[in-house]
User: What shape does this take?
Amino acid sequence: MNGSAAHACGQGAVMQTCSAGRRAGRPRLAVLIPALALCLAACSPMVRNHGYVPTDADLAEIVVGIDDRTSVEDTVGTPSAAGFLNDDGYFYVAQSVRQTGWREPEVISREIVAISFDDSGTVRNIERFGLEDGNVVALSRRVTDSSVQGVGFLRQLVGNVGRIDTTALGGG
Assistant: This one.
């Protein structure tokens, strides 16, 4: 009877350990699932919209050759940018930028409305441009041309050994 009691006890101990292991695994799973959901939510794309572009209906109210700067501002609002060099136009710019996780932001749409004026300030032309119409322009390029192309650091260092002026070292 002792042998069967020990056998039953041993079997019961295995069942307790097994059931305790299952209970210990549930809290880990309860933490793992929300953490995984948070990670997936952090990787979902975020889209940001910037700027303002008047609608076609608003632009239809502007009459080329008749309206001036003041009437354009009254009709469609003040521009986000004016002519950069000679103030001959208004530019309304809007764009949407998508960013996913750690990746670099990507411009997914861009729209520009350009209203140009003649010398007297009357509307000369209204144009609409999209992202497909644009070109990449480098606004600032800072490149220093090196005169030591193909010459390594040690070669430069050893090459300067014979050029040292010993009279300038103080021994005169």
Observations:
- The helical segments are 2-42, 56-60, 69-76, 153-159.
- Residues 2-42 form the longest helix (41 residues).
